Amino acid sequence: MKYKTKGTCSSYIDIDMDGDIIRSVSFTGGCNGNLQGISRLVEGMKAEDAILRLKGIRCGSKPTSCPDQLAAALEALLAQNQAV
């Protein structure tokens, strides 16, 4: 799944899932080192667990962040999979 981010320096998040398990995450744009770290930390994690940890994180005065956008992307992906 390719997710278009909103309100962050990164522009897209690519997510590969196996059921509800996150297999890989990669960001386009943003703070490369931090986003590689986040991506590696969530690999192998259940999407619901990652959402609980990342949702609501803000970047400075912005109402969102790259981790928050990853949570939104995972929620959208889970909703999409349930609709199928």
From TrEMBL:
Keyword Nucleotide-binding in record: yes
Which reaction is the catalytic activity of this chain? a 2'-deoxyribonucleoside 5'-diphosphate + [thioredoxin]-disulfide + H2O = a ribonucleoside 5'-diphosphate + [thioredoxin]-dithiol
Biological processes per GO annotation: DNA biosynthetic process
* InterPro entries (alphabetical): CHP03905 (IPR023806), TSCPD_dom (IPR024434)
**Alphabetized UniProt keyword annotations:** DNA synthesis, Nucleotide-binding
Q: Give one Pfam family, short name only.
A: TSCPD
Going by the record, the broad EC class of this enzyme is: oxidoreductase
Domain TSCPD, by residue range, is: 2-76
Annotated EC: 1.17.4.1
Domain of life of the native organism: Bacteria
GO MF term set: nucleotide binding; ribonucleoside-diphosphate reductase activity, thioredoxin disulfide as acceptor
What NCBIfam families would the database entry show? TIGR03905_4_Cys (TIGR03905)
Family membership: Belongs to the ribonucleoside diphosphate reductase class-2 family.
- What is the protein name given in its UniProt record? ribonucleoside-diphosphate reductase
